[in-house]
Design brief:
single chain; alpha+beta; Multidrug efflux transporter AcrB transmembrane fold; 18 helices; 48% helix
Length: 589
């Protein structure tokens, strides 16, 4: 039974070079990947590199004087977090301040402008029928419109829908629509839409009573006048158009961005479907012959019923009255044409979407409905000057801590300190390279608490070396020579190191799960460095110690090796006891 143990011990002692080669290959490969990616430094968080800070103030919605409460504010924070993270922005902080403020911090180096647009877009999402549309400004560039159809069904051809083609942009123009609505005056379009199709359900909030002619209806006349005066080419006008209007009332609105060199202005009917009825929205690439990016939507049971009824009605109308205006914060983010009745609770918006446009639209549909109305109190840019000073101070603190650890190791362990210092350098190299790669890979940003986590990790890593060295010295005190002492000490030290690192990693994992913002950076760095400590000890420290144990300087216990038996108070060398031989009778001999 002793032979297998001896064989395993011999094998483990004779092939430590394999482990060293493996970790060195890993370091070279990761470093090569870092240089190939072009990201040779870790991405810094807002507190170190600067960024944008947005302050949003909550307002009660009309008829809901008590809407500002902890539950709604927490829901708003969660949705805003998802919006920002949906853009690939990491290390952004979204948190409440006081009872009615939300602070959003977006680090430099991310698509901060796009994130600001979506975070600041905090009104509810609605699906409103388009009554009229008119392009404004720029050259008249015919741009095809997106279309909406049953999920999984191909969009009808232009000859079937009456459109030129299907396309992306929000607020895309109808080429023949100027001051009229597809050949009809705007007043006729309003009148036609206000008169429900026989057997169709009237729009949400509308009354079933007959609508008087536009000339005799002051509200309609006011809406026409507002539409005629609306100038969507002006940013200040676009910012307020369509806001503050009840869902049950028609409104005018601008497109959220220019399309084909033009802005669009709309007359929209009462909301037919609330954005909260969108259960899921996701961008995907169509692998069929049509190809291109599209947005797939799933509705709740209530939303599916409402959407099926209104699409049945809209599909019978002529352009642009067969379009839906998807309205977020009073602006039309998309106006797809309805190709036919859509039932079953699933639909898809198709067109000439780019990947970014499809993902943006899906993001708005998914997270567009907030329980409160917010307006931007302030938008400020955080400079990196203070962050640079903090980073400088943190690096100095880390250097001091590392220097003290090195001095202790050299004074106490002498020659053994070279193994510990080499292991610390390997751990530092792996940490730096992996952090640099995690920036573009998962959006990891190094903030000041994360730097603190890396400094704390120096002590955790050094503790693993100390445990191993002390176990070896204990074996030498028992009278064993260095090579067997290393192999006997390793199993005992290994258990202690694993238990210690497991506790540290568990603490880091719990801290990462239950906290938000910058504290997560500390927890992430602590957990990462703890895992790297295990890798370094197993694949570098132990094999290197095995190799150096064969060298005369360490094997003979030089006084500067840190393993001098006399300094350690070792017992006399252990020797095997021999069986006493039978006494010999000299007389008989």
């Amino acid at each position: 039974m002793a032979a297998p143990k001896k064989g395993r011990s011999a094998s483990s002692q004779s092939k430590p070079g394999r482990s060293l080669a493996l970790i060195l290959i890993a370091i070279v490969a990761l470093t090569g990947g870092m240089f190939l990616s072009g990201h040779t430094t870790p991405r810094l968080g807002i507190d170190l590199a600067g960024g944008t800070s947005i302050t949003l103030k909550a307002k009660n919605e009309p008829g809901q004087p008590n809407a500002i409460n902890k539950t709604n504010m927490d829901t708003a924070v969660d949705i805003m977090n998802r919006r920002v993270n949906g853009l690939g922005v990491s290390e952004a902080e979204v948190q409440t301040q006081g009872n009615d403020n939300i602070i959003v911090n977006i680090p430099k180096g991310t698509n901060a402008r796009q994130a600001r647009d979506q975070v600041g877009t905090t009104a509810k999402l609605y699906f409103r029928p388009v009554l009229a549309v008119e392009p404004q400004g720029g050259a008249v560039t015919p741009t095809p419109k997106p279309s909406i159809s049953t999920s999984g069904s191909p969009a009808p051809s232009p000859s079937q829908t009456g459109d030129k083609a299907t396309s992306t942009s929000s607020g895309s123009p109808s080429p023949s629509a100027k001051a009229t609505s597809q050949g009809r005056p705007v007043t006729d379009a309003l009148k036609a839409d206000a008169t429900p199709t026989p057997g169709a359900k009237p729009p949400v909030g509308s009354k079933a009573s007959p609508t008087p002619p536009p000339a005799a209806n002051p509200a309609t006349a006011a809406l026409q006048a507002k539409f005629a005066a609306l100038d969507c080419t002006k940013r200040a006008v676009r910012a307020v158009a369509g806001k503050g209007v009840k869902p049950s009332e028609p409104t005018v609105a601008c497109s959220s961005k220019a399309s084909g060199g033009q802005w669009q202005k709309f007359i929209l009917g009462p909301a037919e479907v609330d954005g909260t009825e969108v259960k899921k929205a996701q961008a995907s690439f169509d692998t069929t012959a049509a190809g291109g990016w599209q947005v797939n939507m799933e509705f709740t049971d209530k939303g599916a019923k409402q959407f099926g009824e209104v699409t049945t009605r809209l599909s019978q109308q002529q352009p642009p009255q067969n379009q839906f205006g998807i309205v977020l914060d009073g602006q039309v983010v998309s106006n797809p044409a309805v190709n036919g009745p859509i039932g079953g609770g699933s639909a898809q918006i198709t067109g000439s979407f780019s990947q970014e446009e499809a993902q943006n639209l899906a993001n708005m549909l998914s997270y567009g409905a907030l329980p409160l109305t917010f307006h931007t109190e302030s938008v400020s840019t955080v400079t990196a000057a203070l962050g640079g000073e903090q980073l400088h101070a943190g690096l100095i603190a880390g250097a001091i801590g590392l220097g003290l650890v090195v001095i202790y190791l050299v004074v106490y362990y002498r020659g053994l300190s070279t193994i510990a210092i080499a292991s610390l350098l390997v751990s530092a190299a792996l940490t730096y390279v992996i952090m640099s790669l995690l920036g573009p890979a998962i959006g990891f940003a190094l903030n000041l608490p994360a730097v603190c986590g890396a400094i704390v990790a120096i002590g955790i890593t050094a503790d693993s070396f100390i445990v191993f060295f002390e176990r070896i010295r204990d074996e030498i005190r028992e009278g064993r020579t260095l090579r067997p002492a290393v192999e006997r000490a390793w199993p005992r030290a290994r258990r202690t190191i694993l238990v210690s690192d497991f506790v540290s990693f568990l603490a880091a994992a719990v801290l990462f799960i239950v906290t938000v913002g910058k504290v997560q950076g500390f927890a992430f760095t602590l957990g990462l460095t703890t895992l790297l400590d295990v890798v370094v000890v197993f694949f570098f420290t132990k094999p290197l110690m095995t190799i150096l144990a064969r060298k005369k300087f360490f094997a003979e216990g030089n006084r500067w090796s840190g393993l001098d038996p006399q300094r350690l108070g070792a017992k006399p060398p252990l020797r095997r006891t021999r069986r006493a031989s039978a006494p010999v009778d000299m007389k008989e001999a």
